[in-house]
Write a structure and sequence with these properties.
By secondary structure, the protein is an alpha/beta fold. Helix content is about 40%, strand content about 15%. It has a single domain, classed as TIM Barrel, CATH 3.20.20.140. It contains ten helices and eight strands.
Length: about 270
């Protein structure tokens, strides 16, 4: 697959356009974003959405990432897995899926989202241990195929950081990072990037994060259809513009400077 070389505009480094919430208007959602110069990285989370991500990337000429959502990756081992959302979690073999990802390494710019989720309903110690094992397998793969890695760390921010440090990971994006100030600073010291969603418009935490992270280590994401700037309204990639505006306000610089630096950050990280 021929990947787009980003030169100007905005970037959404993490969105879920395969979501059923886009089934009736995906063409319009992508067009709205592209009309405003927004490049997108469609993110997979399991065996089904990884393949759907590749289909979407090819159809709309956008980029994609392949991931193993930590809850989905252990569903085969634990019957009745549940998370906060009403959905059926697919069961698949992690090793087989990692082989598929490696075979399709040239079709993606990023591995993610991956990591740990200790806030899953009834998360036992056995489930946590299984997540860690899978996470370390993914890290090994990302290093082997030379791809950056985007981290989901809900309820396990410290644990994710410690594992990434243990494996000396350098090309890291902390997605929607909810850790405390000391952990944000630790990510910065490690040279990692932190991606900021449009929900910054209504959540003080992300304003604090932006104030602590140098502009050279920030990226923009939407996690669409989630993390909307307006509660109850479906999020979409065009809303990275809201994030850029908010970052500019917090940093006391012009929107154009933020837009340019974030694109520079993305080009360097993804080798575009």
């Amino acid at each position: 697959m021929l990947l787009i070389v980003i030169m100007v505009g905005y970037i959404d480094v993490h969105c879920h356009l395969e979501s059923d919430r886009f089934k009736d208007d995906l063409d319009e959602v992508v067009k709205r974003a592209k009309d405003e110069g927004v490049e997108m990285i469609q993110s997979g989370t399991n065996n089904l959405t990884n393949r759907r991500s590749l289909e979407i990337a090819k159809k709309y000429d956008i980029m994609c990432s392949f991931g193993l959502y930590p809850i989905d990756a252990i569903a085969l081992q634990f019957d009745g897995m549940k998370d906060d959302y009403t959905r059926e979690i697919p069961k698949f073999d992690v090793d087989s899926e990692l082989m598929w990802v490696e075979e399709h390494k040239d079709d993606c710019v990023l591995i993610g989202e991956v990591g740990l989720d200790f806030k899953v309903v009834e998360c036992s110690d056995e489930m946590k241990f299984a997540q860690v094992k899978n996470f370390e397998k993914v890290i090994d793969l990302a290093k082997r195929i030379d791809k950056p890695i985007l981290i989901h760390s809900r309820g396990a921010e410290l644990e994710c950081i410690e594992i990434l440090e243990k494996h000396n990971c350098k090309r890291v994006v902390m997605h929607c990072f909810s850790g405390k100030k000391s952990l944000i600073k630790r990510c910065v010291e490690n040279g990692w990037f932190l991606s900021v969603p449009p929900v910054i418009a209504r959540l003080q935490h992300f304003e604090t994060l932006v104030s602590l992270v140098p502009l050279g280590q920030l990226l923009t994401e939407t996690d669409a259809p989630y993390l909307s700037p307006v509660q109850g309204i479906k999020n979409e990639p065009i809303n990275v513009k809201i994030t850029v505006e908010k970052i500019a306000e917090i940093k006391g610089v012009k929107n154009g400077e933020v837009k340019e630096q974030i694109m520079k950050n993305a080009k360097g990280l993804f080798n575009l």
